[in-house]
Specification:
Length: 370
């Protein structure tokens, strides 16, 4: 695993990153940053939500800006107002320790254009915009793109599904011919591929981060220390605080899965079990109920839950810690999908807290004691 320093990120940014609690590059950052710093080639970075794509393009973008020039040098297009604001804020935080200031402005629909006209009349090196509003501002000559060097299309798939295809084409056509294009997206649907084929270079460099390798920062890792005999009650308390949210409870053994399932069912919780002894038909039935959210809680062994892809899992409970530390990652990765937050909570004895420390070191996970 490389450090930000090894990726070529300069010290002032590393200081800002540290203050943002970002100390270790995510995979997309590791793959994108050195390439974008060194090359003028077009680039496609595909990675799921929550993998740190903003810094993956933001850091090289900021490092390539010439702060002495007041012209717009970079343009970031994003699908929504919230996203534009979020990106601008992220970049602003990254620039905190720079000696030569870089100015980032976010412009989007739904806000008085006069405010944005005034904002853009000040020196601005990076503009973050929704496609529609940018075109509006270009038509009013509020900004020009003649010094533009880089265009970033963030959440490109989302921009297309929101119907920004024509706007994107207009902007890409109007940008200077040697503008470098960086496209970031969670998926590459065929409509997006068409846009890529039309507007991006033949030698575009593409990197992909596969699902399993993602560092998911949306998972909150917790542990709770209790005696074995009180565990069931604390787990029930936790489930109650989650209201009717969907979750998985992991046990190490089949026997423990069966026992816990019966205990919870006897207290009228909508739970069912999945483990290796079940017939395929029974497993399918349980999984169907779980996926359709008719069944709220699934109690499972590690192996039986492998590959389960259910959206909207609010939590993962580790009723028993897994045999191997890597299993902890597989288990906790069941929650916090598609950009949603999730909790992964271990119920452990005092003696087992050393296993939590082990996960912290080995898996680079920070746990919160609750
Ligand atoms: P994406 O655009 O891929 O959905 P973001 O760039 O919005 O992801 O980042 C998601 C969250 O992860 C943000 O809160 C961000 O500050 C944080 N983050 C980014 N990079 C890292 C990292 N290397 N380590 C830890 N957290 C990170
Ligand atoms: Mg993003």
């Amino acid at each position: 695993m490389a450090t930000f320093n090894e990726l070529g990120v300069s010290a002032q940014f590393i200081q800002a990153l540290t203050e943002m609690n970002i100390t270790k590059p995510s995979e997309i950052q590791e793959k994108a940053i050195p390439f974008l710093l060194k090359n003028q080639q077009d680039f496609i970075g595909q990675a799921q939500t929550g993998t740190g794509k903003t810094a993956a393009f933001g850091l090289p973008l900021l490092m390539k800006v010439n702060p002495k020039s007041n012209e717009v040098q970079s343009l970031i297009l994003a699908p929504t107002r919230e996203l534009c604001q979020q990106i601008a804020k992220h970049l602003f935080k990254l620039t905190k320790h720079l000696t030569a200031k870089i100015f980032v402005e976010a412009v989007y629909g739904g806000e008085k254009i006069e405010l944005q006209l005034r904002a853009l009349s000040r020196p601005t090196q990076i503009v973050v915009a929704t496609p529609g509003r940018l075109i509006d501002l270009l038509e009013r000559k509020a900004l020009n793109l003649k010094s533009l060097r880089t265009i970033v299309l963030d959440e490109a798939d989302e921009m297309l599904s929101m119907g920004f295809k024509d706007e994107l084409s207009t902007i890409l056509r109007q940008s200077p011919p040697n503008t470098t294009k960086w496209l970031f997206s969670a998926t590459l649907p065929s409509a997006l591929q068409k846009l890529i084929d039309t507007y991006m270079a033949k030698d575009t460099h593409t990197v992909q981060v596969k699902k399993a390798e993602i560092v998911n920062n949306l998972i909150e890792h917790q542990y709770f220390v209790c005696e074995e005999r009180d565990k069931l009650n604390y787990v029930i308390q936790f489930i109650n605080t989650m209201n009717a949210a969907t979750g998985i409870i992991f046990c190490r053994t089949k026997a423990a899965v069966q026992t816990l399932t019966k205990q919870l069912q006897s207290k009228n919780y909508e739970v069912d079990a999945i483990h290796g002894d079940l017939q395929q038909k029974e497993r399918d039935k349980v999984m169907r109920a779980f996926k359709s959210h008719k069944l709220k809680i699934l109690v499972a062994t590690d192996i039986s839950a492998r590959g389960i892809d259910v959206d909207d899992l609010a939590y993962v409970i580790h009723y028993q810690l897994p045999d191997m530390p890597e299993y902890y990652t597989h288990r906790s990765g069941r929650t916090a999908r598609a950009g949603k937050r999730g909790i992964s909570i271990c119920f452990v004895s005092q003696a087992e807290t050393k296993r939590i420390n082990e996960y912290t070191k080995l898996l680079n996970i920070i746990f919160r004691k609750v």
